[in-house]
Amino acid sequence: MGLTVEVIETSELGDRSYVAHDGKVAVVVDPQRDLDRVEKILDDLGVRVGLVVETHIHNDYVTGGFELARRTGAGYVVAAADHVEFARDAVTDGDERTVGSLTVRVVATPGHTDTHLAYVVGDGEGPPAVFTGGSLLFGSVGRTDLVDPARTDELTRAQYHSARKLAEILDDDTVVFPTHGFGSFCSTGPASTGDHSTIGTERSRNDALLEPDEDAFVERLITGLTAYPSYYAHMGARNRQGPGAADLSAPERVDAEQLRRRIKAGEWVVDLRDRTAYATEHVHGTIGIALGPQFATYLGWLIPWGTPLTLVGETASQVTDAQRQLVRIGIDRPAGSALGKPDELAEPDELRSYPKSTFAAIAEARDRGDDPVILDVRRHDEERTGPSPVPRTSRSTSCSSAWPRCPTANCGCTAQQASAPASAPASSHARVVRSYWSTTTTPALWPPVWRPADRSRTGRPSGVRRALSPCGPRGQPLRCGTSAPAAAKIYPMTGHRVVADRRRQVRRRER
Known about the structure:
3 domains, 19% strand, Oxidized Rhodanese, domain 1
């Protein structure tokens, strides 16, 4: 049996892991932390692990490589230049390892990280495979600003040369297996779709291989870099320590009174239900982040790291699925879980809701003389796909001062972007309407709200207030972020205590 590669998709993070084998012995590349998926494939194939390899110290997830090597007794290959706290098989450019009938050759490919490696695996007969991690992706390359923003230009140039190096030393029929590029924030540029690529294919479509001007490539890549989740800051240190096994056992079950105390203490209590169900009814003080493909990404982006987390779901399977996503980004053990519908977990006076709306309805409200604040929670790259109705401000400013009195509409390109920010002000008695929209329908959705005549000399709709300016007689000063995480992360961090204090101040002034 020749070289065969099994793909393990982690679509929630936009990553892939691989099991390359010859029918008897396997090389596992960049495994995620929930190893039961890897172990099932190994068992089904009837192969043993001979080697576990890491293309780099990952920034977007906690690796399962260290634990898999420990469990199986396989060698654990990590770049010699990486400073880690565990014993490993330290390799450098040009090193080779043999696993069964397979040969594994190490290729240094700095750029995504400065110690990044690719692995060329072959059996000496058919076409080899190259596992490129975060260097050469499908149609693109990995981002270059995660190590140190001050070194982005340097690492982008290194990335350019690494991609071209792979194209120079490998034949056209070499199959390309990247770790990133399937929705991961570790990729950059317009990644190509599809499940398969070769070096020959990449020669015809990959920007790093098509662009002859290094300076032009560097400028284009850096210009296209977008925001990435704040939890990335914690992944590198964790991966250098050698992460242990993930614990997916059921968390402690909490009752309504315990849930009430945790909310009052400022802990994070996250409602996993669909955004529409959350808007219809939820427990006051909970945060709505619907369990879905990007649940862990957005929760990890927003939560103050280390904050106790309680998960609220209607079923135990929802909590289990959320746990699996969370252990991948290093949120190991929820502080507890609660099961049931809102009316089963709280008293009637502790339940809240907020209305949903459409852009057409918001336009009608403006025509009636109402003046809702529109909070655009898209990222910079999403704003470029259509007009932005709100001014950009510093990512470090706070939205909490807007919520006590402002009627507010949140709009975003994804459900999480629109609903996560809405959940916090809703828990503070703000009047919130939320609109969810997609970039594919931007031209049709915005014009009914923002007519050409509405725009001021700055190009901003006249009905939208500049950040830090008053939002009208009904509201308080608005400070808004430029993305879903930027806008939303401050709500739970300030907590309802701050908002409540502001609300009491407003009431005193009214009396």
